[in-house]
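User: For a benchmark we're assembling, each entry needs the component sequences followed by a predicted structure for the full assembly. Here are entry 17's components. Please fill in the structure.
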Amino acid sequence: MDKRSSALSALLTLVAVWCGVAWGQAAPSTPKPILAGPLAKLDIKDAKIESVRGISKGTLNIGLHFGLDPGWFDPLGYYGPALHFYYLVHDALIKPMPQGEFTYSLAEHAELTASFTKAAFRLRPGLKFQDGHALTTADVKWNYENYRGYNAKLFQDKLDRIEIVDDRTIVFHFKEPFVDFLDLYNGANSGIGWIVPRHYYERVGQDGFKARPMGAGPFKFVSQEAGQQASFEAWSEYWRRPPGVKVITVRAIRDLAARMAGLQTGELDVAYGMTGKLLQRVMADPKLRWDPNFTAPWHLMFPGYTEPSSPFHDKRVRQAVSLAINRPFLVKQETQGIGKPWGNWISHENRDALRGDGTELPVPPYDPAKAKQLLAEAGYPNGFDFDWYIPFVPYFDMAERILTDLRAVGLRSKMQMLDAPAYMAQTSKGRKGFPGNRTIVQRIDPRPGGAKALIRLYAVCGGPASYICEPKIEALWAKHEASIDPAERERVAKEIQRVVVEDYYLVPLYLQPFVHAVGPRVLPEGEAVHHYWDTVNAPFPWPWEVWQVKG
Amino acid sequence: MATVLERAPSLGGLSHVARRSYRIVADVPAIPLLILGTLTFVAVFAPVIAPHRKLTPVKPTPAQCQARFSMTDCPYVDNVPPFWMSGGRLDTPLGTDFLGRDVLSRLMYGARISLVVALTGTLFAGAIGTLLGVLAGYMGKWWDQIIMRITDAWLTLPSLVFAILLSSVRGPGVWNVVLILALVFWSRYSRAVRGEVLALRERDFVKLAEINGISTRTIVFRHLLPNVMNTVMVLFSLQLGVAVIIEASLSFLGVGVPPPEPSWGLMMAQERESLMDGKWWLAVFPGIGISMLVLSANMLGDWLRVRLDPQLRNR
Amino acid sequence: MTLWLLVTIIFGLVRLTGDPVAMKAEAGADAAYVARLKQDWGLDQPLPWQYLGFIGNLLRGDFGHSFEKSLPVRDIYFERLPNSLKLGFAAFIISIVLGVPLGMLSALKVNSWWDSTGKVVALFGLSMPGFFVGLVLIIVFGIHLGWLPVLGKGRSAFVGSDPSTWVTFWFRDWSHLVMPAFALGWYFSGAMLRITRSGMLDVLGSDYIKLVRLKGVPERMVVAKHALKNSMIPVLTFAGLNLLIMVNVAVVIEVIFNWPGVGQLLYDGLSNRDFPMVQGVVLMSGLMIVVLNFTIDVLYGYVDPRIRLSR
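Assistant: Structure for entry 17:
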């Protein structure tokens, strides 16, 4: 009798606890503020947690168009392309998702004081890493302190101290207003918010972690061949949902023809970077589906135009360059008509960016006659020769087309073939990267972080990749940096964009579609597959846990 | 490397041998020479006989623009097929490429670049390698050691390293490719030539020259070099084929001849994907050109090897 | 001695190729990050210091950390080497199977129709660039006919710690191996044919063979037992060198077929200015060539008594 009743009560307690836990997880977070005082208005979307936990099945083969780097498994050393793996193995406090540019993930609640001097997060309950170890604010603190990737020094310098309120609540105290904190802490902009397990990391060391990583993300690492391929397996206990696919394999396939071949034989289910000579074939193949995946607009820059001896010093010459390029034809040739002639150099998916499709900024017209007239007015009735046209590697075909257009109005030059490292090295040296002042550089930069990130990089005097130095813009930028009012910042950022475009300091071309193609095995069938690309400003179709394939 | 019959006169009687060897020796390789001759002619006279320019797109008719882009006027129409296929025009007999440029004209101009690059590169390589090989073989002792050690070390360096190095330091260019070919191939010559010279050094006429006090320079240039020329020429024609292929591979990897200049290797490399897309004429015609060139060079080399065998000649 | 020359040359050469930092740091990376990268990579030190450090590490077997792939070069290299060896061996076998019999036939029926046909077949492989042959194979056998897979090498991996893979690795996933090995092997079969042909011709004309013929040995025995054996020496020498070339420099084939070998490592390393990787790969291939040459010299001495006696 005793045994039976104690067993029954134990069972009832267990049921009660289970219900309580389930209710606690399912219930929305109670809005009890962590910080005192007026709070900044944040626009962070709630995560979409699946209530039905299905079974993962099938294999998804992804063809990446550049080589893999095991360094991508380590958020503490974050740099650009690393994000592809982060969404597989790791998870962040807030990260871009289809719900919005800022979406709660590991965190369920965040606050920033209106003066931007304090930031607080509350983690979801019951979080753990893939090996079962609990994920707590101690890990979040450790990550912040040991981060050494982009902007590490900025994060360290601004930080006053980190206060751990409890296992799920953490407050960051800053020495001065840190307006960009949430932008930078957001998963797309740095690795500092992607939480790495301290106990495991310290045990295996940096190299060990890169060879066999582990995190809190939806997929567990299985194996890799350094630089070539990596395999991942679904982690059924991921807080959001068990992934739809059981196994994901990412392979580095640099050659476009090889990716196409892989798609056609079925060895690849997803392939990136299919814009180019084979786009027509992708579009014509009934078994394949493709998503335009607009990234950012192409634009032309004029290093050294600020010097009076440069032919591009005269605004009319720069305008002539813009008028000379036949964007609709270029778009037909390069992207089978999918690309959109665009009037801004910043992608519309960036916050505070002006749309260049005619609604906010006009689409640049094609008028070679007017271009020649402007050149004549500026003192070049027969056009002129300029030193170099620097193409964006490896879009040499496009550069040839543009050069043909320019040649038609009298602007003659040659293409300087750099390879990727040389191009990156030279364009990151700012003004010093290109000697002389008779050069045109072509560029594209799909980077997250709002329009201001691109302005900071390309439109201000001190910008690391900037060739622009105008007092008007400097004054506006100073106002932007001094302000802590998001509305005013937005206004100023838009003003700067208008100045840049209207004075032709940068000449935008068209919005680039970096086409991704999927094979027949990817579910859902038909055009509904496009919802995988819903995440704003994302170079890849994140997140991965929602993908599904046929048996 | 003589044929069996020349080396074994005991087989089959002398007249039989004489007749067979006459036929072999006088057997001019007509086809390779014809092909090489035609290619050289085309290369030299390309600006005159090419129907269009090599860099400028062919102006299309309004009908073409309408058919391809649904526009009444367009700067060029890309990927026009050869004239015997539908959509092709006699004006551009082998079609146009992705920028609307005439394939036949680019092939002709491309013959120039491919031939010049291959020839110059192999020539430089031959010159350097022969000279070093003669020095190593004749001077012996530490000359030999140093040169051979460098040759060995050099042989292990992949040509790709040089290619990327040169293109990143100087910017890619046609002369880069020539330099690379020269740098990569000289070691093949020096090995072979050194072997020849080692044998030659012991011959009577050389020893006589030495006894008579003739200067080393004269011996090298008057006596040794002419006698190693045969080996060098054979090597040269064989290496010519390899040079063409290497230029194509380097262009494929992006460190060879830069666009928009047409070289056959670059044309093939740029239009690989078009091959997949069904536009075979863009990659196949340069491919045929390369194959013809390499095959002819190889056959010529083989014939030369038989013809110029020292054992044959010095009988 | 040769090795040391090679080491120094490659050290200097890679540093001339340019700046690797921008590849990882990208525009907009803060100065502190760039400085840290340089420090991690040892590039902030003066050149002679870097050189000494490099040599010192080399003597301990440490090639450094790859800039692009973030792991020790040695680990990555030896993980990939079996793949290259597998491809090299397969291509080698194909080149012998194609080249040697045709070469023998050419030598026996000199200047006949067989001779010319054999030469053209083998030389055709030599006269087309690898990337073209590879693509045609992919299109025909991979896409249209669907007989063979077009990407990579399949699942099999040579795992040092798992002896069960030591043997099976060479035979599993052979369908992935066929096309790249053929594309590579066909190219070299031309050279094989030539060497076999001239070797056989040399031997067939030699006094030794004349003697054997005079003794009345039937022609077929002459060919099979004596001519073939002795003509194999130059074939094998050349073959050894070819094998090394195939293993080390089959970059184009590896890129097209996405075969994860050391050629691709070299290409990636050069494309991304990955100094330690390039240094490591070139040194390893140099080492292999030196060892091979040495072995061949020794074997030569063993096999050919004339050489042995003349020393």
